[in-house]
Write a structure and sequence with these properties.
Helix content is about 35%, strand content about 20%. The chain has about 160 residues and is of the alpha/beta class. The chain has a single domain (about 5-160), classed as Alpha-Beta Barrel (Aconitase, domain 4), CATH 3.20.19.10.
Length: about 160
């Protein structure tokens, strides 16, 4: 993965899966990516789904994705073209669902404390750092296999490529 530039959407701590994808839609919209995307973050930021552009990133505080294990909370962000979620910390099940679905997740609390809504950041996966406003923010490097899963578009595509 090379260095890439992205616009930031900034949110706070404890954004749960019900806020990422409202539970009221869980059993009415299951597999339609366009429809999933229309409801991304609708109760937190009604402008997000219509204004997000492919390649944008979410930068959030602690415990992003806590709550249920619903996959729609990852799939709706992929549907709007989100490149990554960068957070101070992730709920474990969300983190795993994101990787399995091909959504890049990065833990970088130092960036979270500094970045603002609308900032442009540059992600350097090879160097395990994020650049913003002339500063560098290191993050724990992702294992090569995790990077390959995300690059393939998720665990199923990754396994199909390897067989």
């Amino acid at each position: 993965m090379k260095r890439t530039q992205h616009r930031v959407w900034k949110y706070g701590d404890n954004i749960n899966t019900d806020v990422i994808f409202p539970g009221k839609h869980t059993y009415t919209i299951e597999h339609d990516p366009v429809e999933l995307g229309r409801h991304a973050l609708e109760d937190l930021d009604p402008s997000f789904a219509s204004a997000a552009q492919p390649g944008d990133v979410i930068v959030a505080g602690r415990n992003w994705g806590n709550g249920s294990s619903r996959e729609q909370a990852v799939k709706c962000l992929i549907a709007v073209g989100l490149y990554a979620v960068i957070a101070s910390s992730f709920a474990r099940i969300y983190y795993r669902n994101a990787i399995n679905s091909g959504l890049l997740v990065i833990t970088c609390p130092e960036l979270v404390a500094q970045v603002k809504q609308g900032d442009i950041i540059e992600i350097d996966m090879d160097g395990a750092q994020i650049h913003c406003a002339g500063r560098r923010y290191p993050f724990p490097p992702l294992p090569e296999q995790v990077r390959e899963i995300v690059a393939a578009g998720g665990i199923i595509a990754y396994l199909q490529q390897r067989s």
